[in-house]
Design a protein that fits this description.
This protein is mainly alpha-helical. It folds into 3 domains: 112 residues, Bacterial muramidase (Helicase, Ruva Protein, domain 3), CATH 1.10.8.350; 119 residues, Lysozyme; 65 residues, no CATH class. It is built from 16 helices and 7 strands. A 3-stranded antiparallel sheet has the order 3-7-6. The protein is globular, with a radius of gyration of 25 Å.
């Protein structure tokens, strides 16, 4: 990190009569503290943001100077201790449960026409949209209590060094901070008042600032894009997001499977992770047993593994649409929770 040079007095006489300054912590030190106004790295970032976004430099400095480091946010993104096994069944139970199903049913009934319009325009099923909103915020009930400015600044400048991708993630949140400040200034929003998740996601669908800028749409036609107060805009924006990420209308998200122990090549099947790579024929040749509609699938498939703690893992065959759901949150556990919550609400909608 570059540190500003210390300016020496022009003469020894001037130095003799100059009052010795009190010792203070160096403002350039990137040490988490109560605020970022005295951090040279943060103020340099403010200047860079102002230049790139064509914002008033003093406004950006003044706003960013009021951001506060929040230890709970840094803790939230810290990886779990080694040896803590993932557990799909436990994860699923947090989301596919009666409270969210009832709330999803009420939401679907209240916004049936809007969901139908979104599905007709984009091909994204209503149950996927409903699933996302249920997992993310319980249909707007829990949109986050952290100041977005604090969340983004904490993760931009003090992303936990213990994370294996700390540098990459810190750079990502610097970009999100820039997008947030630019969007707030241009839209007339108060960046000091907006609240969201510990990661800086906002509104009913929990869009990050860059996603708000790229994918959010005015679906209620009132001239504003408002993901915080407009369920219609949230519905249309989620549908648009998946459309952009190549949702294929009519395609299933996944198929059930079993294994032929005699021909199973698990290492090859797991190598691409969740990216659909294998044809039905190549899947079967490597020991995956499919039946029913899966045998007619013309696209690629991925072997999706979901660990269950000490119990055996669960597996499904993921399609390109399963992969599309993971673009919203890069987790197969998240994607299947969205899918199964949406299915549960759709089932509750049936007479």
């Amino acid at each position: 990190m570059l540190v500003a040079a210390v300016m020496l007095p022009a003469s020894a006489t001037a130095a003799k009569h100059r009052k010795k300054p009190a010792k203070v912590a160096h403002p350039a030190a990137a040490v988490p503290g109560p605020g970022y106004g005295q951090r040279l790295d943060a103020m340099q970032a403010a200047d860079d943001i102002a230049e790139r976004q064509k914002l008033d430099r003093e406004w950006v400095r003044q706003i960013l100077g009021q951001a506060r480091y929040v230890a709970a946010i840094a803790k939230a993104v810290t990886p779990p201790a080694a040896g803590v096994a993932k557990n799909w069944q436990l994860y699923r139970s947090r989301f596919v449960e009666p409270l969210r199903i009832r709330a999803g049913l009420a939401f679907w009934q209240a916004h049936r026409d809007t969901l139908q319009r979104a599905e007709q325009q984009t091909g994204v099923p209503a149950e996927i949209i409903v699933g996302v909103l249920g997992v993310e915020t319980i249909y707007g009930q829990q949109t986050g209590n952290y100041r977005v400015l604090d969340a983004l600044a904490t993760l931009a400048f003090d992303f936990p060094a213990s994370h294996p991708r700390a540098a990459e993630r810190g750079a990502y949140f610097k970009t999100e901070l820039e997008q947030f400040l630019g969007w707030a200034q241009r839209s007339g929003r108060d960046p000091l008042a907006l609240k969201g998740s510990y990661a800086g996601a906002m509104g009913l669908p929990q869009f990050m600032p860059s996603s708000w800028a790229k994918y959010a749409v005015d679906f209620d036609g009132d001239g504003l894009v408002d993901l915080q107060n407009s369920p219609a805009d949230a519905i249309g924006s989620i549908a648009n997001y998946f459309r952009v990420f190549n949702w294929q209308p009519g395609l299933a998200t996944h198929f059930p499977l079993s294994f032929d122990a005699g021909t199973l090549d698990m290492a090859t099947l797991m190598a691409p992770d969740i990216l659909p790579t294998f044809s039905v024929a190549s899947f079967q040749a490597k020991g995956v047993v499919l039946d029913g509609a899966a045998l007619q699938h013309a696209g690629k498939l991925a072997l999706i593994e979901l660990q269950n703690g000490d119990a055996p893992p669960s597996y499904v065959a993921g399609t390109d649409n399963f992969y599309a759901v993971t673009r919203y949150n890069w987790s197969s556990y998240y994607a299947l929770a969205v899918i199964e919550l949406g299915q549960a609400v759709a089932q509750a909608m049936r007479p």
